[in-house]
Design goal:
The chain is mainly alpha-helical. 73% of the residues lie in helices and 0% in strands. The chain has seven helices and no strands.
Length: 115
């Protein structure tokens, strides 16, 4: 089962060699942390901040998401979050709905791993 999940993760940009050392090379521990990320992550606060043009709050949500996705080695989602963080760092909310949709789609693919 683990090999199947890790195979699917790799298709989502996961780099096992770079990531697993952060989890003492323990695949079960990694999967436990990934499961916690999936169950505890709620993108509604980010979406609300973006809808209300609250760039500071949106930046805080995205910056936290950047850290977690980076630590978990969720390459594709991490890249999309980083791009949005940089836009907000520069004060731009341009195209936020497209950016959010991309991040939400990335997260849906990760959530599907647990099904």
């Amino acid at each position: 089962m683990d090999d199947e999940v890790f195979g699917k993760l790799k298709k989502l940009g996961f780099d096992e060699k770079a990531t697993l050392p952060r989890f003492v090379d323990d695949r079960s521990f990694y999967l436990s942390c990934l499961s916690s990320f999936i169950s505890e992550t709620d993108l509604s606060g980010l979406k609300a901040a973006l809808e209300h043009s609250d760039s500071q709050q949106a930046f805080q949500h995205l910056h936290a998401l950047k850290g977690v996705t980076g630590n978990l080695g969720l390459g594709n989602m991490y890249d999309d979050v980083c791009a949005s963080v940089e836009k907000l760092r520069n004060g731009s909310l341009d195209g936020w709905n497209v950016d959010f949709d991309r991040i939400e789609a990335d997260f849906a693919k990760i959530k599907a791993l647990e099904q």
